Amino acid sequence: xxxxxxxxxxxxxxxxxxxxxxxxxxxxxxxxxxxxxxxxxxxxxxxxxxxxxxxxxxxxxxxxxxxxxxxxxxxxxxxxxxxxxxxxxxxxxxxxxxxxxxxxxxxxxxxxxxxxxxxxxxxxxxxxxxxxxxxxxxxxxxxxxxxxxxxxxxxxxxxxxxxxxxxxxxxxxxxxxxxxxxxxxxxxxxxxxxxxxxxxxxxxxxxxxxxxxxxxxxxxxxxxxxxxxxxxxxxxxxxxxxxxxxxxxxxxxxxxxxxxxxxxxxxxxxxxxxxxxxxxxxxxxxxxxxxxxxxxxxxxxxxxxxxxxxxxxxxxxxxxxxxxxxxxxxxxxxxxxxxxxxxxxxxxxxxxxxxxxxxxxxxxxxxxxxxxxxxxxxxxxxxxxxxxxxxxxxxxxx
Length: 398
Hints:
Layout (H helix, E strand, L loop, with lengths): L12 H19 L8 H14 L2 E6 L3 E7 L2 E11 L26 H17 L5 E9 L7 H7 L10 E8 L7 E2 L3 E4 L1 E10 L3 E2 L9 H12 L1 H6 L6 E9 L6 E2 L2 E10 L2 H21 L3 E9 L2 E3 L1 H15 L4 E2 L9 H7 L2 E7 L20 H18 L5
Helix pairs in contact: 1-3, 1-10, 2-3, 3-10, 5-7, 8-10
């Protein structure tokens, strides 16, 4: 979905009053990005702002993460709002006036925008806490780009005090226009299985290949054979991706090495498809290496799919339709992965995509050196988040 609103809806006045500051926060974080588990400055910016706002239970968690609580003036449910905070090891090439000043590090997945929206949401809720039924805990999570960030936050107790009744979050999406929203019940982000394959042969001189078991040749056949996993072992009605993204082996052109290492990813939405693919990969690797007299090692680990609760997804959809319009809400699934999955395994909730494509139509792909997003999405995101919390808690907020 890329249809752009001709005129974007306007957030409420209290959100508009926060917007300039929210954009400034986003740009500051963009200028000073930090990699997973290294988000020390980012953490301090978040903690200082939360303390200045007067939220309860403001503290560092999970190493470089942060949490705080808006405690409502009336009894009600406990909502968790999650925002990821880390950047990527990419050299920025946007030319923005607030481009990264940290060499080789860039906010190329909109986490700076997620933090800006969450901080503004915290300010709006704190200002209206007398009218808030229940509470809203904020989880500013490190290390989304590396497996472990969400688990660390959960182990630190962010879902336990108070116990989370529902969890929400959003992902700014640079390929959909500002003023659009996507949400689905069930899986919305795919499960990601990281795999590592080592092919072990017998090295030797390149001039005498008959005395060796060449792992480079074997690895080449493995890679080609793996391309049949999706095309011949997965139902065409099911979504699946298999990619080998890295291969490493050898030191010089006249030396046949002892081994070749490969790594890649599989993406699926249904656990049974993932299990079938993992089994087929190992069967293929075992068969190909045996045919050449080589040996192998196959390791894998899976980040589960992000699975939305049907009721909570319905809340997001209804809010989106009421604020953005029926024609600007869609149901799309993404083969990207996100460790929001772990929160949604612990409590019902929903994760959704908020459109923010470049209005000039320039490609701004996630995880690219040219990544950027339409900052109008920040105000829309704050408003949508407020409406979700109003709906979940039965509150009328300012």
